[in-house]
Automatic annotation (TrEMBL):
Residues 1-26 form the signal peptide. It comes from Actinoplanes siamensis. This is Oxidoreductase. PROSITE patterns: PROKAR_LIPOPROTEIN (PS51257). Gene3D superfamilies: TolB, C-terminal domain. The keyword Signal applies. The keyword Signal applies. Residues 66-361 form the Glucose/Sorbosone dehydrogenase domain. Keywords: Signal. Pfam families: GSDH.
């Protein structure tokens, strides 16, 4: 899925009105720490729909003219670092702004990246010690493998983990620091048989947990192994809620896209399970949506809310998750069809959600403003609260 065109990033601010709607299916991570960006206030107040439990939300377009923005992570000054999958650029968005929106500048371009299919420059995470070490971590594709590297902006990345399976599709790419201070990565199986997802010696189809040197973290299920969980098809999104419960998206299965609660050492069933594990040794997903209505990428959490952004579904699903890990009530839809394909979704330091579009690729239908970064502010004491 290649980018349709190349052009410089442009930051423009608009404000639109969005309403939530019910769907028919049943705290920011440590790498997102920082202060709030200097944002203009929305000029239009959102209005809630009449459906019970719907949320009022204000939607602000922060930047336009990006190319397949894939990962978002925040710096201590409140600015965001945004990866572009196909151009291999890291963009700095904010913290300064004017009447046109947030400033967008190129912070780095990684010559090591070889973008093709859904591979390229993917996830990004900011060191929890960024104030002193100025280090960021990236997940990226070469011609032969996927890698995780660390770098100081302006310098070439130093690989800390190589040999993650590379394929035309299912390259994974999720990257985030957990509340335990260790680095987690979501990978893709990259085969039609699912052989790598069930192979404990393969890095494919897994969630990995490591030190900042790329070594297995203490307390992993198997000593000297990076594997935290297995049986995944393709993991593009990771997050944790305030109780340190871990959530991950899993997409590109033929039938369903999943949102999983990830547990240490558990097997999530691919390729034997697609949307439901059916009991036994496999773990059932928290939610599974038909692929055509989902194919979800980024996932974010704040308070009791867990949200995931979807590519084929062109929407965000909002879930209220109880303390015991069940979904309360009916999930809601947001932005359905309004901005096209939605990919990255993160919780910003100010409690808002940031989401990116992904229309500048072969399967998208871009308009002149794509791709965009969008900010969501909820009025019910959740994201964006004052």
């Amino acid at each position: 899925m290649r980018s349709r065109r190349g052009r410089a990033a442009v930051a423009t601010l608009t404000v639109v009105l969005a309403l939530t709607a019910g769907c028919s299916f049943g705290p920011p991570g440590p790498d997102q720490a920082g202060t709030a960006p200097n944002l203009p206030a929305p000029s239009i107040a959102a209005t809630a729909s009449d459906a019970p439990g719907d949320r009022e939300v204000a939607v602000t377009v922060l930047a336009k003219g990006l190319e397949v923005p894939w990962g978002i992570a925040f710096l201590p000054d409140g600015s965001a670092l945004v990866t572009e999958r196909d151009t291999a650029r890291i963009l700095k968005v904010g913290p300064d702004s004017d009447a046109d929106g947030l400033e967008v500048t190129e912070a780095a371009r990684l010559a090591e990246v070889r973008a093709s299919g859904d591979g390229g420059l993917l996830g990004i995470a900011v060191s929890p010690k960024y104030t002193s070490d100025k280090t960021i971590f990236v997940y990226y594709s070469t011609a032969t493998d996927n890698r995780i590297g660390k770098l100081v902006l302006g310098q070439a990345p130093e690989p800390i983990l190589t040999g993650i399976p590379r394929s035309p599709q299912q390259n994974g790419g999720a990257l985030a620091f957990g509340p335990d201070g260790y680095l987690y990565a979501g990978t893709g199986d990259g085969t039609s048989t699912g052989a790598q997802a069930q192979d404990p010696k393969s890095l494919g189809g897994k969630i990995l947990r490591m030190t900042t040197a790329g070594r297995p973290a203490p307390g992993n299920p198997v000593k000297d192994s990076l594997v935290w969980s297995s049986g995944h098809r393709n993991v593009p999104g990771l997050t944790w809620d305030k109780s340190r419960r871990m959530f991950a998206t899993d997409n590109t299965q033929p039938k369903f896209s999943e949102l999983n609660v990830v547990q240490k050492g558990k097997d999530y069933g691919w390729p034997k399970a697609d949307g439901t594990a059916g009991g036994g040794k496999f773990v059932n997903p928290l939610m599974a949506w038909p692929t055509a209505d989902s194919s979800c990428g980024g996932v974010a959490s704040l308070e009791t809310m867990v949200a995931t952004a979807c590519l084929l579904g062109k929407r965000i699903y909002l879930l209220d998750v109880t303390g015991n890990g069940t979904v309360l009530g009916t999930p809601q839809e947001l932005l359905t069809g309004k901005y096209g394909r939605l990919r990255a979704l993160v919780a910003a330091p100010d409690g808002s959600f940031w989401v990116s579009t992904s229309n500048q690729e072969d399967t998208g239908k871009p308009d002149p403003e794509d791709d965009r970064l969008i900010r969501l502010v909820f009025s019910d004491g959740g994201a964006g609260r004052s």
